[in-house]
Amino acid sequence: MGGIGVIINPRSRQNLSDPRAAVRLARALGDHGVVRAARSREDLARIAEDFRKLSIDVLGISGGDGTNHVTITGFLDVYENEPLPPIAFLRGGTMNTVANAVGVPRGRPDGLLAGLIARYTDRGRHPLRWVERHVMQIGAHYGFIFGTGCVHGFIAEYNRSEERSALWAAKVLARASAAVLLNTGTQVAARWQGRVHFEDGSAFPDRDYLAVAAGTVDQIGLGFRPFHRHDERPESFHMLGIHTSALGFVRKLPDIWRARPMGEAHTFEKIARRAVLEARSGVVHYVCDGDVHEHAGPLTVRIGPRVKILVEHKSGHRPARRTSHDVGGRGERAHPCGIVR
After folding, report:
1. Bias regions of kind Basic and acidic residues — which residues (predicted)?
2. Which among 121, 214, 224, 239 is least buried, having the fewest CB atoms inside 10 angstroms?
3. Would you tell me which CATH number, out of the four given (3.60.15.10, 2.60.200.40, 2.40.50.140, 3.40.190.10), belongs to the domain 142-303?
4. 4-134+306-326 topology per CATH
5. Where are the domains of the chain?
6. Exposure string over 110-149, b if 16+ CB within 10 A, otherwise e
7. Average pLDDT of the residues in 156-161
């Protein structure tokens, strides 16, 4: 059958406030594909199997970072060794960090889907474009951004409010920064204690960290880009062991915004394919693409499959400073860092 298969999370905050979103997306898609609502992981597994049998050309996801990583995890479990179809992040969530990092145009799901349909129907003359990024396998989950310590504390504080938006995230960061400067304490500055082993025998030592974090995209949210070496080597991620104080980290925020290294006095860095985190407490509390998880015992983070992410939903859009690829393939040469030229 082919076509576009769209997953919508009816329990996402935006879709709860707009229950007819799925109907509108289905009407917009028409004969070009199908829209399915996934209310549980079991639903997602059944939908993934259906989409696989239908040989869909594009997997659209209406939701934010959390919906994206849950969907990708469910589809990778079903597709197993088969590559996923190119993914269209249609946004619609409160956090869209990965979409921002790879150059997906801004807009509402309806508008992005309409642009995607127009491009899809015209793909014979103007092929769809994508960028490629690896996901990390983090325990049983797949995602692009991982973090413990203050990353986990930030998301926990962010989730305390019913107001979840980029503005609220900025307020959480501003309040936490002010608390650090005034030395009044904040759970956003919660630290992580443990060590990290790497596949080559090296390690981040057993100590107190503000955070251990990793990414296969450069951003972590609000435009901050700590993982500026994410594509330095093929099939690897950029991991940081941030051991500075909360105050030292706040003072380094301008450098992180500009994708500059924090320096050895503030953080350890590693380009790795595999890392094992051992928490002193025996439980690793962490964040994967904005969702909070916990894992008893050592937690393994390893490089996962490479996925294709559509970046050109709007006519004339070109992702700045990123290399893209034509759907269907035209014999492009693969760069050693995994970028298709």
Report:
1. 323-335
2. 121
3. 2.60.200.40
4. Rossmann fold (3.40.50)
5. 4-134+306-326, 142-303
6. bbbbbbbbebbeeeeeebbbbbbbbbbbbbebbbbbbbbb
7. 71
286 vs 223: which has the higher pLDDT: 286
* Alpha-carbon distances, residue 16 vs 21, 23, 66, 93, 133 (angstroms): 9, 13, 15, 11, 30
Which amino acid is residue 291, in one-letter code? D
CB contact at 8 A, 4 and 44: no
Determine the Cα–Cα distance for residues 209 and 192; give it in Å rounded to an integer. 5
Confidence of residue 336 (pLDDT cuts 50, 70, 90): very low
Q: Given this model, what pLDDT does residue 148 score?
A: 95
Where would I find the beta strands (DSSP E) of the chain?
Answer: 4-8, 33-37, 58-63, 87-92, 129-138, 141-143, 145-147, 192-198, 203-209, 211-215, 237-242, 267-272, 274-279, 283-288, 291-296, 299-310, 325-326
Convert the pLDDT of each residue in 35-56 to its tens digit.
Answer: 898 888 899 999 999 999 999 9
pTM of the model: 0.85
Backbone angles phi, psi at 30, to 5 degrees: 55, -130
Report phi then psi at 334, rounded to 5. Answer: -85, 125
According to DSSP, the residues that pair with 196 across neighbouring strands are 204, 277
For residues 211 and 148, the answer to whether their CB atoms sit within 8 Å is yes
Distance between CA atoms of residues 79 and 67, nearest Å:
18
